Amino acid sequence: MRIGLVGKPNVGKSTTFSALTQTPVDIANYPFTTIEPNVGVAWIPLRQPCACSALRAKREAAGRLEPTTDDDPRKGSICSPNTGSCVEHNRLIPVTMVDVAGLVPGAHEGRGRGNQFLSDLARCDALIQVVDVSGSTDLEGNPVGEGGSNPVEEHEFLLGELDAWIRGIIESSWQRGARRVQSEGDKALLTYVLDQLSGIGADETHVSVGLAAVSSEHPDAGVPWSWGIEELSTLAKTVRAALFPICVAANKADRAEDGSWKQLADLVTSSGGILVPTSAEAELALSRASAAGLIQHRPGREGFTITEDGESKLSEAQRTALSSIDKSLSRWSGGGLVGLVGDIVFDRLDRRVAYPVQDETHWVDGEGNVLPDAILIPEETTAKGLAYAVHTDLGDGFIRATDARSGRVIGADHEVQNGDVIRIHAKS
Length: 428
Ligand SMILES: Nc1nc2c(ncn2[C@@H]2O[C@H](COP(=O)(O)OP(=O)(O)O)[C@@H](O)[C@H]2O)c(=O)[nH]1
Ligand SMILES: [Mg+2]
Fold this sequence. Notes:
Blueprint: E1 2-6, H1 13-21, E2 34-36, E3 39-45, H2 52-61, E4 85-87, E5 90-99, H3 114-122, E6 126-132, H4 151-171, H5 174-184, H6 187-197, H7 204-217, H8 229-243, E7 246-251, H9 262-270, E8 275-277, H10 280-291, E9 295-296, E10 305-306, H11 308-313, H12 316-329, H13 336-348, E11 352-357, E12 375-377, H14 383-390, H15 392-396, E13 398-403, E14 408-410, E15 421-426
Parallel strand pairs: 1-5, 1-6, 6-7, 7-8, 11-15
Antiparallel strand pairs: 2-3, 3-5, 4-5, 9-10, 11-12, 13-14, 13-15
Helix pairs in contact: 1-10, 4-8, 5-6, 6-7, 7-8, 10-12
The protein binds guanosine-5'-diphosphate and magnesium ion (MG).
Guanosine-5'-diphosphate (GDP) is lined by residues 7, 9-15, 251-252, 254-255, 279-281.
């Protein structure tokens, strides 16, 4: 799962990136959450209790495990995640974040760092546009005084750049491609567009939806080789909408009037997107204090506690500042940046979580680690699809699977449900 942060200069992309990726996670195998200067890992809580909650209940019922005690630092969790952590059955999973700099007017023509910008985008599953809702900078990021720019215009500008980029790719040898329809029939058009766009991640569904939109919006379009800019724009725009779900962080909300993002929110939600008001700067202050060991703060949760180290090092003024930051964040609904990433993963991209294990009785891997992996899979993933998501060899050698919660044997085509614990049997 890879999510790109996009937006014009100075809106707070890098601040957002740091706030999301500087969170320390206790037992993670990720020594650093920043992989490259602009690529890092955000830790997102699962929405349902980790499967270790069911495992604990099962063991307690069988009399093989004592109930949780008050002094348990993990508050009952008994899993050992390979990546991420789990406290009180609240499991965090990694989502890769990319700070994609370089969106300026004309980026689609390669202006600024346009080409790098586009190749970074091509690898993302979804985009978050960071918009400055205090409206304090123009489209090039120059200060214009608060309320001087328009967040709706800022959003439409991004969509326009993406559409123009995709149209440019389709247009480049359109005549030649469209002519193939004459000799090879309608299917050739789909194949041609797919060939052009597969490099940016488009599949047959995206392209079919785009071609269908041209037929319905331009009934008089005629033969493909006579299509003009209007038809190609419709095609590009529809493919873009299907390929890059775009959600919005309405950032610098601390400097905007509450609700000043309403018009943008309506626009974004009407096209199936999500908008959450944020203050990246405030969230970063909490992540930093947490990374320094001064406070304990779980991603996606309100509130924090001051650690022993914090008690001795934080001044009264610093404590007051942190509390007021935390309070200001809970003023807006949506759960801030972590809430937004979670909504994108679970609502917009409809991801489910599955726990592959090698032993269906003890829910462990080959080394005895309990529920080591919690992996995200698309809706409608089958047992065999899950096997491939774990490892190609496991998919190729797939024989059958066991649903560890029920103990039932399931076949290759069985659809994996959210939260399933699955043992895969494969030829080695
Ligand atoms: N008031 C306020 N300022 C912010 C917020 N997020 C970022 N900034 C400030 O905006 C400026 C630009 O931020 P930066 O992350 O470098 O923007 P980028 O160019 O989009 O990467 C910096 O001075 C940040 O401190 C926020 O939520 N509220
Ligand atoms: Mg930046």
